Amino acid sequence: MSSPLSREDVAHLASLARISLSDAELDRLGAELPAILDHVAAVQGVVESAGADVTPMSHPVPITNVFRADVPTPGLSRDDALAGAPAAEEDRFLVPKILGEEA
User: What domain of life (predicted)?
Assistant: First the structure.
């Protein structure tokens, strides 16, 4: 594992990322970031050693688009839509009043 980063280095990285860190977080991340960077380097080493015959992927299972074509279809008629309503008035849904008379 690499040596811990200084508080100034961690504070500089935090300012580049536009995040604010407390003094305790600066100290904790100074010790943790080298281990994280070592893990990233290990993954990068695997990627580099895989060679050109391994295709990079973002998901282990192939994903296909499942969208249907955007084709207009007829909707419900007004009578069919209002048929399931508990109450209707003047070809509209009738709902309980939730506001006072000031509206």
Answer: Bacteria
